[in-house]
Every structure is written in C-alpha cells, then in structure tokens.
Amino acid sequence: MKLLVTGAAGFIGSTYVRIAGDEHDVVVLDKLTYAGRPENLPEGTQLIEGAIEDPAIVREAMAGVDAVINFAAESHVDRSIDDQDAFARTHVIGTGTLLDAARELGVERYVQVSTDEVYGSIESGSFTETSPLDPSSPYSATKAAGDLLVTAHVHTYGINASIVRGSNNYGPRQYPEKLIPLITLNALHGDPLPVYGDGRQVRNWLYVEDFCRGIHAVLQSGRPGEAYNVGGPDECENIEVVKRVIELVGADESLIEYVTDRPGHDRRYSLSSEKLKRELGWEAQVHFDEGIEKTVAWYRDNEDWWGPIRSGEYREYYERQYGKALG
User: Helices marked H in 23-168 — which ranges?
Assistant: First the structure.
C-alpha cells in the first residue's frame, strides 16, 4: 500500500515509519513544529511540510494513497493548559479536514492514533474500549473530540476508519519535555529532577515500538468504527521511574525536587489490551525493565540528537514551566 502518515516527524510517528516503511510506500505530512524533526525520519522518506488543518496541503499529500494514519498532535498536557488553541486546531479541525479529504478522495483505510487520556483517571482495574470518555485536560478533551469525529464519519459517511488508543509511550527520540527523557537528560547533566506532587501517579508504560506494531495491526485488520486499546505490560509510579533512571545514569537521588502538581493531574491510567490481543493477536514484547535500559542508553549515546534541543526553545519553555534555568 501507499500510506500517508501525518505527524510522522515526531516521536511515535517516526518510529512507525521505520516499521511500516519496510513493506509499504510512505508519504509523511508534518507541520514541523518544535517536536517535529526531519532527522527523525529514515533517510529518503518523502516529507511534505504542512498542517493537517490546511485542506489544500492535505489533498495534495493524500492524492493516490491507499491509507491514512493520523499521528499529528500537539502532545504535551502542560502546554495545553497554558494555550489550548493549537490543540483544538490540530486535534479537531485537523482531524475533520483529514476525514473529509479521505472520503472525497476515496481513501480505502483511515486510522486515528489517540491516547488513554481520553478516558480520564481510574482508581483500580483497567479501561476497556467501552469505557466512557472522561477527559481531564484540554489536550485529552480535544483528542477525544477528534476520536468522536472519526466515529461520526464512520456512521454518517461509511468510511473505513478505526481508532487506536495507546498508554504512556517511551523510547528513543521522544522530545525531552516528557518525563523519561527530561529526567534522563537532567540526570546526565546534574540538573534537578522535577517531580509533580508526590510523584505517586501511576502510568501504564508502553515501549514505542510495541505501540507502533499495535497500530500497524489495526491498519491491516482492524474493524471499521472500532477502537482498540494498546496498553503497556507494566504499571509504575512516576517516582519509581525517576529512581530507576537515576540508577541507570549513576546519579544521586538528592537531585529529586518535588514541584507543584499539574492542575487536574490524573492519578492513574491503565488500559486493557485484551480486545487487540483476542482479535488481532497483538502482545507487548518489551517489558519496562528492558525498555528503560534501552531508552536511557539511547539518550546517553545520542547527544547529537538532543544537544540542539537543550540549547534552543526548550530552555525557555523549561524555565517558564519549572521556574529555574537548566544548568
């Protein structure tokens, strides 16, 4: 097939291109915001720069493709709390623009990449695909709105579309505003390690390649109108993640600095992947102990990737967010 993969210059999308590109022709459409970097993509990948809310660019990129996989997103909750407008444009208007173009151009298959955060927080047990959507932040609310647009287009227009919702991804090439790369790079530099609240928020950690394999399985065999959860094999409190990174880096726990918690911070996420396993045979292959070692090693060995980030806009963002400059 010929695939249009939107938002693929970012962390998860570029990982997906590395997997899908072995068997399909791939075209990437990416706005190249701060987290979208052409160097994330395999050499020779066709890249079109543009926003998914731009109908003309979308139709140009989508012409002649067999399937669309939409990774395009503003992905950081903290930024959505400060300014929700970009999140609404990408997640709602952009998703609608893609769906309209896919219908008009007769694209055979559409997959929407979403998040566990659309379900909100859960004290015990795990969310299934029939759990109600109860988003807590502008980020998750706009992602939920995009998901609902997909199901509306399935019911109204009969397009062949599915939704994939992943738990907390981690791995190489993740922008360092997220917990694991932030803590890893700060620990490597001896900077304080900011931890929200008491650090006991629980997350369901999913290695990025496992998530991308789940997305690819849904592209190939998922049922129209259905959502599929892709949950990680291990749960862990944020503070335990931080301590494990400290151990791997060889830093000291005295670097931990508890900071004011994020407004509306969800306490626990957990996804059941039973539907994906039962229908499509997917299972996670990388447990957290292995994945975190691989991830920390990648950041240690790839200063050429993260060096320009820590010297650019990210420094200003970090100081605004945490009230102190990086060392």
Answer: 55-62, 77-82, 85-88, 95-104, 138-157
